Amino acid sequence: MKFLSALTTALLSTAALAKNIVLTNDDGWASTEIRATYRELTNAGHNVYLVAPLEQRSGFGGTFTFSYTDKLLHDDQFHFKKEGDAAWGHEENDDHIWYFNATPAACVGFAFDYLLPTHFADVKIDLVVSGVNQGLNLDIPMFTISGTIGATYNAVYRGYSAVAFSGSTSNNSFYQDSLNDDSNAPANIYAKKVVEITSKLFESQGDNERVLPLGTGLNVNFPKVTTLVKEGSEECSDPQFVFSRLTGEHVAIPGLKLNETSGVFEFSNLKNGSIATGVKYNGIFDLPSENSVTENGCWTSVSAFSVDYSAPEQEANEAKALLGDLLVQRS
Ligand SMILES: *[C@@H]1O[C@H](CO)[C@@H](O)[C@H](O)[C@H]1NC(C)=O
Ligand SMILES: *[C@@H]1O[C@H](CO)[C@@H](O)[C@H](O)[C@H]1NC(C)=O
Ligand SMILES: *[C@@H]1O[C@H](CO)[C@@H](O)[C@H](O)[C@H]1NC(C)=O
């Protein structure tokens, strides 16, 4: 009896926390990390719809572009889908795993404007998860550049709670080459951490309608773990979460450098940020920047962002005053 009631309780609590999730990314639907994340979220009892770009769309930020043909005009980078195949579709054996030849932000549009209403009776989505990205997306410069985060803020625009996840992996690997059950594999560790933080959010949500406050999302960055950690450095396999902020005096701003030998420009981060990236207008002022968390040991940064990009009242008023009598009251 005792066993039965414990089992019933366990089943009930699992059922209560079984959520509907849209999962996307910018490395493409066939990336190892998104497939590991799909597997772990599904194993945790959630109903997951993986809806992601056909192929690598890193660095597309919030760009909203999509296929203008109904067939693919080229193979994807892994030759998984080929020229002439449909511009969108799902895995043959799983109608919850979809690709669309589009940017990450447009995949969010595909999920909510077409796929869910057309094929899944408008199932109510509790959370949008983006990632885990193959590469870090730290601080405000990456906030606008990253397709992983672009998908996330596009989901937040629509009123969904959404979380972006990025890892310290750099290889753009194909799940058919690299997905495995090795508990030490970075993709699998990151996927387990996604389940850990989303489970906590759902538990805290309780009976509330929303997971996160309206207009708010989270940006999560995982440090190097297990095989990615440099020899001689501290081992890391379970990086705990540290709350952080997107801005900071020492965040890396994208920059350029001319290579005089080749005559072409190369990417060159301005590593020390600027006094502008160090401004403290919004948020909790004494939090560390994301890079200072993730790049200094076995810690995962978690920042809250909002899609209210308007300048705060004082700065908006200063800008307004500069425009003076050029401004009129609209009748
Ligand atoms: C990187 O990804 C490619 C494509 O999936 C794969 O063939 C290769 O084995 C990967 N390399 C490493 C070091 O994981
Ligand atoms: C500049 O370009 C040359 C020629 O392509 C290359 O060999 C060299 O590594 C580059 N220098 C730097 C600092 O990247
Ligand atoms: C970067 O900032 C640190 C801390 O303020 C300072 O010590 C260092 O000199 C700066 N480096 C550069 C290249 O400006």
TrEMBL record:
UniProt superkingdom: Eukaryota
The protein's Enzyme Commission number: 3.1.3.5
Keyword flag Metal-binding: yes
One Pfam family this sequence matches: SurE
Keywords: Hydrolase, Metal-binding, Signal
One GO MF term attached to the UniProt entry: 5'-nucleotidase activity
Signal peptide (UniProt feature, chain positions): 1-18
InterPro entries: SurE (IPR030048), SurE-like_Pase/nucleotidase (IPR002828), SurE-like_sf (IPR036523)
UniProt xrefs under NCBIfam families: surE
Alphabetized PANTHER family for the sequence: 5'-NUCLEOTIDASE SURE, PHOSPHATASE, PUTATIVE (AFU_ORTHOLOGUE AFUA_4G01070)-RELATED
Protein name, per record: 5'-nucleotidase surE
Organism (species): Wickerhamomyces ciferrii (strain ATCC 14091 / BCRC 22168 / CBS 111 / JCM 3599 / NBRC 0793 / NRRL Y-1031 F-60-10) (Yeast)
Lineage, uppermost ranks: Eukaryota, Fungi, Dikarya, Ascomycota, Saccharomycotina
